[in-house]
Amino acid sequence: MSTGNMNLTLQVWRQKNSKSAGKLVDYKLSDISPDMSFLEMFDVLNEQLITKGEEPVVFDHDCREGICGMCSMFINGQPHGPKDLVTTCQLHMRSFKDGDTIVVEPWRAKAFPVIKDLAVDRSAFDRVIAAGGFVSVNTGNAQDANNLPIPKSKADAAFEAAACIGCGACVATCKNASAMLFVSAKISQLALLPQGQPERYRRVQSMVAQMDEEGFGNCTNTGACEAECPKGISLENIARMNRDYLSAKFISEEEV
Amino acid sequence: MSSLSKAFTSSIGKKFVMGLTGLFLISFLIVHVSINALIFLNDSGETFNVAADFMGHNIVIRIMEVGLFVGIILHIVQAIILTSQNNAARPEKYAYNKASANSKWYSRSMGLLGTLILMFLVLHLYHFWWPTKVAVYTHQEHNTFQNIVMIFQEPWVVVVYVLGVISLGYHLLHGFQSAFQTMGWNHKKWTPVVKTVGIWFSIIVPIIFALMPISIYLGWIG
Amino acid sequence: MSKLNSNIPAGELTQKWTKYKSSVPLVNPANKRSLEVIVVGSGLAGASAAATLAEMGYKVKCFCFQDSPRRAHSIAAQGGINAAKNYQNDGDSTYRLFYDTIKGGDYRAREANVHRLAEVSANIIDQCVAQGVPLAREYGGLLDNRSFGGTQVQRTFYAAGQTGQQLLLGAYSALERQVGMGKVQMYTRHEMLDVVVIDGKARGIIARNLITGELERHFGHAVVLGTGGYGNVFYLSTNAMGSNVTAAWKVHKKGAFFANPCYTQIHPTCIPVSGDHQSKLTLMSESLRNDGRIWVPKKKDDPRKPSDIPEDERDYYLERRYPAFGNLVPRDVASRAAKERCDAGYGVGASKLAVYLDFKANTERYGRIEASKAGNHNPDKETCMRLGTAVIKEKYGNLFDMYAQITGENPYETPMRIYPAVHYTMGGVWVDYDLMTTIPGLYCTGEANFSDHGANRLGASALMQGLADGYFVLPYTIGSYLSKEIATKPIPTDHPAFVEAENEVKATIDKFLSINGTKSVDHFHKRLGHIMWEKCGMARNREGLTQAIKEIQDLRKEFWADVKVPGSADEFNPELEKAHRVADFIELGELMCIDALNREESCGGHFREEHQTEEGEAKRDDENFAYVAAWEYKGVSEFELHKEELNYENIKVAQRNYK
């Protein structure tokens, strides 16, 4: 039951470190089971490489259940591969056919420099959050949770925006390497909730400024991010962020 | 940098200018297409010439014309800046990118479509805007309608115009709804309406524009 | 025994924490600015502690091995978080939460700690909601609750099936806020490889920058671990691939006692193993047992499809054995029952190591209710199934999708196949009431410590404990230690203790790279996991454990002689990271077996086959084993047992019964 019968050709991006140039390298794999996840297929490849005395392929991964957002991989021209609403770790080999050639590249963006092979540095996202993706409430400052009723529709919408796993697929797939979907998801979550109101217009200004500073591109509304997002984060969030940003900059008198 | 200039140079600020100028140009298209449509009255251009003459001489319109050029230039300049920034945001391209899986080709080709429209626009201004201006400043009589009829006797001109308005159509197909998204005008109930209106606008307006050279060339109007 | 003072404050149980808080020494704001605290780990416990300490004014350095603190495995928790809010007016109280937790832990947890946990549970919900965590709400705008195993009240707060994610992102945002303000220095992709002890106190860590391979020395007036559990010792578990015991094990080897290592929670409802390629297991939330019925065929090796097996040829063994609780018995009981059936040859699926979790009966029941609501009082079966499926989809849609994704089967049509899997470890670094380990100045929080869960954790309590420790307990208790450290100047990192610790780490790394053997790190990890699962898993016995200890010792020798770690030390080298982790897992595995062998009783997640009732239920020995087993590291394969007696002053110890 362990081995299967799929034979595959992988073209994997190999790059020693952030300074050196990389290239696609071909690997043949046989007896791959359709029940394997894409990353387990890479485990098999790496096991073979180690046995042969070659360096295994470095790739980011952790929870392998689609929630931590650590796995990446641009598979056959799409982030997280061909299936909708799944991360690479939840993509299974049954989504491919025997004899397929699969091209695997790292996320590519100036703001996400390659560290090695398929692993990239996404710390730009952390810095965007650090710029304002929070409610300033110190531990111990909180009132009773039910003192603040929130309409279910608002709470649900905030939750949908908050479901973002910060994987960066939106940046990876956007033709402009724009981070608008990621940034707007956090801004939306907090803008929809009463807890987020006091800092609402400061937040949007600081987070957008940090996003720009990180070197992400500009949004041209192609919608690719939404289509590829493994958590189905909606473009509505971007509109909401634009609206808040423009009100903050052109209507509000508070400067950041 | 002052707060406002920071706003305009931010990514969303630049997009705001794109969206705003885009919507302004769309409003111009409505005026333009309405006047053009007057030739379909088929009265040898009599009504059309009255309107054209009004547009050429009325002081308000002429001031707005300056605004129109400013709008076009801003739209182009911002587009160039945005495109170069966007290209810089991904220095190393993908070996294989299956963009067709997640977006429309025309959404990804706004720069190309815009460039085609610009090239067409140069020819278009040379054909129609320039002679009008010359007439205005040399105080000569100018029959715009006759000029149109003359120019559209050349088959290649007709082809270029048709291609130009097709580019415009696709440009609008993305640009119309995109402008609303950029301005943040998003609404559960109204956004679908905007999108539908955008699609019809992007189809109907270019068709009316295209019908003009075609019908003149084929002699339906003259 | 002198070393094991749990430092529980005197006084009446319900007043202990209140009195402690009002009398614990404080550190004035100016002094806080010059006190440095190192926090290792950025999950619920680590991130909340780092953020809160920084808010209070301490200088904080926080480390995580992932590329961002938001990736910590707390993010994967599905079900919910308990809190004694009594919003549902169903008679909940701090005492009831305390009582349920002690009982759920099979009377092997410390009363004072658990009561404190129950006390602060309500504050956690307030704090998280204030941060903008979108917990589920009712139409009236107030918070919703669901019920979870082992309780008779609805006290579980949740955010769909992603409660852990939302809570972690709340803590992460609080942490990033402090990072943005420059009060926390964040070190991502850094792994702690040793603790530095100077004059008997924890004074810093050696961390490896995972990108450059550089070893770094970091000083701290105190060190806090929030590094999670060690379930990956079994290789296959619901933990993340990177979850490891290394930080906890390193401090253990430097003098911190390791308590109750054998207490492991095996979760009954996970997606079964599909083959040797399997790298991890995925949990199906406990909530599914509310509507799913668990069964196996009555006939051994029945080759028929589940749908072809008639009702009277099915064995609903949980309902048969535990009529009172049925499919909702606690996790340890449900897991053992599944194992018993499969071992007896009734397992299903290709591996025969699975049982069915069947939603058909309840789908039909829901469908009948829906049809009735619509005015159809005599619906046919098809209508019932169609309407019922919609209800099931609404309740568990994301879980069903996940199941379909992983197995390629449609759980709406065919019953799910499930099997128990390692999920959580109740054991961990021993801590006193202050959460301080046996090394002064070294603290341990969350799943990494031996915790408040005794021998078995109740559902939705892990998130509660992680955040209680990080937000509300440690920031107070650490003041008691740091108030005495205000005169301590930062120790320069060229101090001999730092140099020595770094040299030790370097020597280990050089050793890994020089072995140049024939087998990968994963090879050894899988073999260790196999030994642990077979002999120190759901059921343990003297013979198996004795064998396991021997096998693990042999495995350790083989590992150090034949492992192959490719690449070099001065680069991003995940295989080298794994080598460190697996080396520590091997040593821990041995201690787990030693602990399991020592504990001659069955309690909670620890089931010794020699100690069971006639009906096959766990049999505790309160007379001889009502203690915490805290192990001191004495050298390779040498551990000394220290006992912390558990005194129950407020709760009457009783045998659990779910019949």
From TrEMBL, chain A:
Source organism, top-level taxon: Bacteria
Cofactor (UniProt): [3Fe-4S] cluster; [2Fe-2S] cluster
Biological process, per Gene Ontology: aerobic respiration; respiratory electron transport chain
GO molecular function, one term: 2 iron, 2 sulfur cluster binding
Every 4Fe-4S ferredoxin-type domain range: 155-185
Gene3D superfamilies: 3.10.20.30, Alpha-helical ferredoxin (1.10.1060.10)
NCBIfam families for the chain: PRK07570.1 (NF005746)
Family the UniProt entry places it in: Belongs to the succinate dehydrogenase/fumarate reductase iron-sulfur protein family.
Protein's name in the database: Succinate dehydrogenase/fumarate reductase iron-sulfur subunit
The organism's taxonomic lineage, starting at the top: Bacteria, Pseudomonadati, Bacteroidota, Sphingobacteriia, Sphingobacteriales
UniProtKB/TrEMBL annotation, chain B:
InterPro entries: Cytochrome_b-558, SQR/QFR_C/D
GO cellular component: membrane
Keywords of the record: Membrane, Transmembrane, Transmembrane helix
Ranges that cross the membrane: 16-39, 59-84, 105-129, 156-176, 197-220
UniProt-recorded name of the protein: Succinate dehydrogenase cytochrome b subunit
UniProtKB/TrEMBL annotation, chain C:
Reactions catalysed, as given in the entry: a quinone + succinate = fumarate + a quinol
Chief location of this protein within or outside the cell: membrane
Pfam families in UniProt: FAD_binding_2, Succ_DH_flav_C
Active-site residues, as the UniProt record annotates them: R331 (proton acceptor)
E.C. designation(s): 1.3.5.1
One MF annotation (Gene Ontology) recorded for this entry: succinate dehydrogenase (quinone) activity
EC top class, as a word: oxidoreductase
GO BP annotation list: anaerobic respiration
A GO cellular-component term linked to this record: plasma membrane
UniProt membrane topology term: Peripheral membrane protein
Cofactor(s) needed by this chain: FAD
Matching InterPro entries: FAD-dep_OxRdtase_2_FAD-bd, FAD/NAD-bd_sf, Fum_R/Succ_DH_flav-like_C_sf, Fum_Rdtase/Succ_DH_flav-like_C, SdhA/FrdA/AprA, Succ_DH/Fum_Rdt_flav_su, Succ_DH/fumarate_Rdtase_cat_sf
Subcellular location, record wording: Cell membrane
Family indicated by similarity: Belongs to the FAD-dependent oxidoreductase 2 family. FRD/SDH subfamily.
Name of this protein: succinate dehydrogenase
Organism: Pedobacter chitinilyticus
